[in-house]
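U., I forgot to send this yesterday:
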Amino acid sequence: MTLLYAFLVGGTLCALAQIVLDLTKTNPAFVMVSAVSLGAVLSGLGLYGPLVEFAGAGATTPLLGFGHSLVTGMMEDVVRLGWFGLFTGGLRATASGLMAAIVFGYLMAVLFNPKG
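Result:
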């Protein structure tokens, strides 16, 4: 059932973002930043954590999940380090995902010739 919940929640979040893009003709970068910001706000209010527990990767993989990871890391580091944790927690919590994006993006750029 966990896989089904992940599929349904992740698919719904992505479909909502696509609907916003299609109906409003909004800049994709604006929608992406809004999704990260919304995930961060919902996480800070304690509303996104239960969704992550329910849907797992279906809630952590979309951009809202990145905002959730940033805020969660910041809150953990604030407890450990005080106010300095506001600056270190987000990067610590998302470092592996950011590094994977950089490494795989670089590999794809080296291995394949983009058409454009």
